Amino acid sequence: MDLMQILQGQLSDDVVGQISQHIGAEPEQTASAANGIFATLLGGLANNASSEGGLSALGSALDRDHDGSMVDVLLGMVGGMMQGNQSGNATNGSGILGHILGQQQEPVAQQISQSSGLNVSQVMKLMPILAPIVMSVLGKARNQGGLDLGSLANILMGSAQNASQQGGMGDLIGSVLGSVLGGGQQQQ
Questions:
Q1: C-alpha pair distances (Å), 68 with each of 73, 121, 145
Q2: How far apart are CA 78 and CA 61, in angstroms?
Q3: CB-side neighbour CA atoms (13 Å) of 86
Q4: Which residue, among 184, 188, 167, 186, has the nearest Cα to 40 in the 3D structure?
Q5: CA 36 – CA 108 distance, rounded (Å)
């Protein structure tokens, strides 16, 4: 199971168009930045899942807030988040980013900005929109696949490694993942 491919599949033209309009960017730039953000978040989650405490905290967060049901209503969820309508922890992108990236959010945004053509402010607006999508996809994968935490950790690590090797974005994703893996926070 490649979570990166699943995440990319969630970004329909309508979703990318809606997000692009919200952050004031061209859809191609938004999609490029989204790939970098998705890969970075997968890398951060894989890093967190590499410790027993981080994996346990991730499992608790998925059980509590991220069952995957939001994937089925993604366009409405994204629209609601952009209008400031958050329905608790499941759509709290800033909180999710804090747990996954900690103090690395702005350095990550700077690196993604350099590659995607978006400015740092646009990337910082995009990151909290995409973070709940990552958690929802992860929750759905766990629930549909009946995955235990060990299997989930293996899938995360494999997906993060695959993402860092994807063509076109490989160098960016590798450098972003390097900074995240060196300084991410434990999932809480």
A1: 10, 28, 12
A2: 20
A3: 14
A4: 184
A5: 9
**Angular region, 84: left φ>0, alpha ψ -120 to 50, beta rest:** left
pLDDT at 178: 58
pTM of the model: 0.83
Extract the residue ranges of the chain whose pLDDT is less than 50.
167-168, 170, 183-188
Question: For residues 39 and 173, is the Cβ–Cβ distance under 8 A?
Answer: yes
CA gyration radius, the chain: 15
